[in-house]
Structures are given as C-alpha cells and as structure tokens.
Amino acid sequence: MQEYSKKERTTDIACLILFPLGFIILAILAIMGFSEGFFAETYISSTQIVSAILVMILPVLRLTKKFRSPYWFMFLVTSVPYLHAVSLFLGFYHSFANWDFISHTYSSIIVGLIVFISLLIIQHYTVRIDLGSTATILFFTFIIAWGFGNIWEITEWIIDNAFGNALMSYSVMDTLGDLVISDLTGAILTDVLAGIILSRYSITQIVEEMNLDRFMDRIGKKWDKKCGNESDD
Amino acid sequence: MNRQQTICTISLIISLVGLIIGLVKMKENLVVPATFSTLLLTLAIFETTQNKYLKEWVCIILCIGLTINILSSFITTIHYTPDDWIDFYLVTPSFIFVSFVSILLIIGYFNIRLDHVMLAVFTLFMSLSTVSAYAGLFLFTRVLTKTLTDEESKLANYYLDASFAVVLLAAIISIFIIDIIIRKKKIKLITSKYIVTEEK
C-alpha cells in the first residue's frame, strides 16, 4: 500500500475544483445564450450541471481514500462527459457528419476499459470467484461493454420522454447505428486494447498499481465468505 | 436416446420446420432465429454423445428458450405487419433464456466459478448485447429495405427504445426468478459440476 502523499492530495483537490469548473462555465455561457448547439439552453445547461456532478465522484473517492484510481484512469473517465458536453455546447453533433459515431465509439471504449478493470479487480481480490482465462475475461468485457450501449439508448429514450422532445435520439437508424456500429466498434477496440494490456502485464501488476488493497481485501474476503458452498469446502 | 437428446431433438425438429418455412416464404425474421436455434441444438445433441455433456435442466432451459423464439417468429411471420414492432417484443424475451444458457455453457466448459451476483450481471449484459446483435441482424435489414419517412422513423425509434426497456425489465425479472431458484437449491457458487456431467 503506497502512502498518500501531500502532492497527491494537492493534485486531487485541484482535480476536484478544475474538473467541474469547465462544465460550470459552459452552463453559465449556455444560460446566457452563447451556446452554438441546436438545442434549448435548458437542456444544454442541465447536461453541463449533471456532468459537473459526475466528474467530481472520482476525485472525492481519492480524497476520502475509498478508491485511489490511477490518474490516467481518472482523466480518461472525465474526458467522456467533457467530449459529450462540449460537443453539445459547440453543436458538433450537427456540424460534423460522423461526430456521433466518434463520440459513441470513444465512450464505448472508456466504458469497456472501466468494465475490464472492474473484472480484473474481482478476479484478483476474490478466491472463490474465478473468471477463467484471458479469453473469457475478454469475452465478458466485450458483452458488458456492448450491453452498456443498450442501457445508454434506454437512457436517451427516458430523457426524451421526460423532456417531451427528440433531444437525444433522432431516428430508428440513429439508435441502430449507435448500437450496431459505434458501440460494437468500441467494444471490439476495447477488447483489442485489453488483450494487448494482458499480454504485457499480469493481472496482479495492473491491479496492485491502483492501491486498492485495504478496501478490496475486506470486500474480497466478505465476498468469498458469501460464496462458500458447503460441498465445495 | 437419453432424455437430454429427446428434448433437444423435439426442439430441433421445430427449428428445422421453422427454417424450411422461413426459406420457402423468404422471411428473414424466421430464417435468422431458426438457423441460430438449429446450430445450437445440433451442438447440444452432439455434446450429449461426448464424455462431458449438459445436465438435463440446462437442456430444458435451452430448448424452452429456442422453441419460444421459433414459435414467436413463426406467429409473427404469419401475422406480419411491417408497421408494428410486435415481433420484436415477442422474440426478444427468449434471448434472455438463450443468454442465461450461454453463460451456463461458458461456466460448464471453461471451468469458471461465479456467484449469484456475477451470474446475474453476466446474464443481464449477455441479454442486452444479444438484443443489440439481433437488432443489427434482423432490424437493420428490415429498416434498410423499407423507405421510412422522418416521422415514421421517429415513431419506430420510440418502439425500438421502448423494446430495449422491456428487454431490460424482463431480464431483471428473469434474473430475480433464477436467483430465487438457485437460493432455494442452496447453491452459493455456480461451478461446472452443476452444468455438465461426465457420467455416461
């Protein structure tokens, strides 16, 4: 377990302030009518506010020492709401023909990487649960990453219904294109990336870098205890 | 012929009948699931001839899922109306069975150990990604071959998104039921010994 240094704490406080700051500025600008997007100011500004709250989660978890995610991971995760919110503010979804594909594929890759890391953590910290070989871990990463695309489409549907307008999904081809082209491409690219990572580093090497020992040791042991079949002992 | 082979053979006959009717009538919404079912059931029958074969309960779930899939496709082929998406609602729930069995097969043949939570999570996401694949295989061809107006396309989109929500809900309910069954059987860790057997 690595020490939580003063430098790290300063960086985390900076992240906690700077990550949402961009969204707050964009929200204010949207309310003032400076957005280039084709959507209503209310929708654009509320997206910025929700994004601002979401990007604070990882820095808060680091500061409270609940989950010390690596900085590369934190920046990658934060880049997803930024990509969506900035594109919405500047109207990229309408200005560039393939922007929706790029945005969806990128988000799918990041979601896939989060899934991949979560599976590695489970594999590393539990004894009784066994996700098998690299191939099966990659398979589970793939199906969960692709499945999340479906959940996103359901979210779009809920938001559209709540706002009473076609704000997030425009046509049946849009939904199918997102699912079958962008999300699938993202899931495949995640698997390729995950495969390369696993061919170079062991699961232990990847997971131990995250300093999760104190938290996950306890969770892992609890989990194992719950999984104990009498017949398996 | 043992019971597993009998169950699989009956389902295989239904699949083959569906496949023939689908090919004769040129209905892709019957040909796609029927081909899928035929391949899986042939594999299941083949597996029962090997040393390590599926347990009866896995076979029953697999056959129920695939038979519902074929029958619902068959019904929607007869009452085919291009403007409604009823077939999507009818066919997709059976993919939850198929996804569940697929995860069980992976546990059985790749020596994986999962608890209820992990089994539920994997089944849920397997169902969702199977529906995405189904949407890609079947709906894409259907949408592409039709000329939809913007308004119709928007309406169809709501049907599609609503269907995903239905599938998600159905998957969660199914997982809840599966969980109750597993808990009743007092199985805490699902391993290959519950899925496959090496007895002859």
Protein architecture, described:
The complex is a heterodimer of chains A (about 230) and B (about 200). Chain A folds into two domains: about 1-95, no CATH class; about 95-220, no CATH class. Chain A has about 230 residues and is mainly alpha-helical. Helices cover about 75% and strands about 0% of the residues of chain A. Chain A has helices at about 5-30, 40-55, 55-65, 70-90, 90-95, 100-125, 135-165, 170-200, 205-210, 215-225. Chain B has one domain (about 5-195). In chain B, α5 packs antiparallel against α6 (about 150-185). At the A-B interface, α7 and α8 of A face β2, α5 and α6 of B.
For the structure shown, list the relevant keywords:
heterodimer; A: 233 residues; mainly alpha; 2 domains; 10 helices; globular; B: 200 residues; two-stranded antiparallel ribbon; 6 helices
